[in-house]
Amino acid sequence: MTLGIIVAMTEELEIIHQEMKKEKTEVRANMEFHIGELSGKRVVAVICGIGKVNAAVCTQILISEFNVDKVVNVGIAGGIGKDIVPGDIVVAENLVQHDVDATSFGDEYGQVPRLDTFDFKCDKELVELAKKACESATNHKTYVGRILTGDQFIACPDKLSWLDSQFGGLACEMEGGSIAHVCHLNKIPFIVIRSISDNANTGAHMDFEKFKYIAVENSSNILKTMMNNM
Ligand code: ADE
């Protein structure tokens, strides 16, 4: 079993990269794919860059060229709703690409026209493993539910309340939904685990800088614990 690990930013791979037993690194599409072991399991870990296109390209390369069996995306996200605060964890059960809009054709927001779903479901076993890992790897609150993805850094109350009323998600980020889309097309099990760095509201970019390292530590610890139980 080989696990593909995708993060968006350098900061998000730091801990995992340090603890990995690396065999080699290969470059594709300007991305470094680090091949080796983490927690005794075979992994390919990669920084995909920010946004849906980078994440989609990266996921397809992991599947087609590195033959990964499962994909995990860890990192940070903006929280949706007043109860979710920086440091909390959101384990995705499902993901929607909130910036897809073909409503002129009668499609719902988020629905890519002619695709069989707009709501990509994470693998149930991986969700259970992630929930268990959260119980032991962090003291922060864990939420399980929908994550929203789009090529937008959300930092605006109006946008946030639109997202909430339209989709009812727990967190917003910029990669998970497209990783889910690619895994769905390839029938590869996947999971997205995000730690909250900001509330996607006014000032989100400042909170993001302040809390990102705590959030990265959280999600890296959860990943390692999860892999120990795999
Ligand atoms: N990642 C972390 N915070 C985010 C936000 N507010 N919007 C989109 N992606 C994020």
Automatic annotation (TrEMBL):
One of its GO terms (molecular function) is methylthioadenosine nucleosidase activity. GO terms for cellular component: cytosol. It is an enzyme of class 3 (hydrolase). The keyword Flavoprotein does not apply. Signal peptide: none annotated. It comes from Gottschalkia purinilytica. CDD domains: MTAN. Keywords: Amino-acid biosynthesis, Glycosidase, Hydrolase, Methionine biosynthesis. The keyword Hydrolase applies. One of its GO terms (biological process) is L-methionine salvage from methylthioadenosine. It comes from the Bacteria. InterPro entries: MTA_SAH_Nsdase, Nucleoside_phosphorylase_d, Nucleoside_phosphorylase_sf. The gene is mtnN. SUPFAM superfamilies: Purine and uridine phosphorylases (SSF53167). Its EC number is 3.2.2.9. Residues 2-226 form the Nucleoside phosphorylase domain. This is adenosylhomocysteine nucleosidase. Pathway: Amino-acid biosynthesis; L-methionine biosynthesis via salvage pathway; S-methyl-5-thio-alpha-D-ribose 1-phosphate from S-methyl-5'-thioadenosine (hydrolase route): step 1/2. It holds the Pfam family PNP_UDP_1.
